[in-house]
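Just scan this pair:

***
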Amino acid sequence: MESSVQSAISGFNLKCTKSKSKSTAYPKIYKDKFGHVCVTTMGPVRIQRAGGRRVQSVCNDNIDAILFQHEVKEHLHENGFTVDRFLISSQGMPFFKNDDGDAYTACAVMTGSNVDFVDAAALLNVVGHIAKMHCVLHEANITAMPVKRAKVGGDTIRLLGNLTALKKKLLKAGKFSDFDMLFLRGYEELAPNIVAFGDSCSDSICHNLLKEENIYKQDNGQIAIANFAEVAQMHHLHDLAYIIKRYIKAKPHEVMPIDKILETYAANYKNPVDAALFHRILLYPEKFVKLTTDYYSKKRSFAPNTFITRMQECLRVGKTLSDNL
């Protein structure tokens, strides 16, 4: 057991059960794929380092950002949603900070099975629950919470200018790696979507990590949403676009019409849904831009298979999205 994790467990003042084995007196703690789990008299609790980008980047300077996550989850819980919740630590905050400066959070271990996005009916059920969650988030008093607005896409004109300059440089050089060829093909297909993206930020709240391992179907049939480490002010439709891209990745063939998914979302969302904005968000090639930036910033002289495979997947998902709109 890592001493820092043990320190965090002690910092939460958790009363741990002892191991049944007589050979050790340590608390009953084990690891799963999501972190360390400590079995307590309150039930199993997961201790995790606060590693989310939006949490970690501000936790040292703006504690309110972590308190904001706590308040969102409390608000959801009070309105009937089963979500993982921070436990208040001995410091009176929903996190524990050890002497080394690491911030840890504690949340109840979720029960149930992860939702399989390949199952179209299950996906639509999840989409309906996400829409209801967004209604609660939309009604929350977020204007009083000092949370930095998340930047989405950045300056699209500057971004497209950088990609255009890169394209011209490659064409002038006349020698293309396998990744260069994929980038050039992707640029022609996806550049119009970068232009159309525009400013899609708003004063709504976005979960940002709605993937299979964070969505559970519990024994009573209720959908539970976990891991709010990436929550930020962003247009709520980014969540819907994110989950659709995960769905297409999980089920590359026989994808249901995306408008059907949007209709299910709109039927459960109390406010009007901007379909045109949603299409711009959905088609914005975020992965393509990130892969391109990562690859060329390292000034590689060859194309690793991992980069080629990821770029091929980006282009496949982009084409599937366009074909199904």
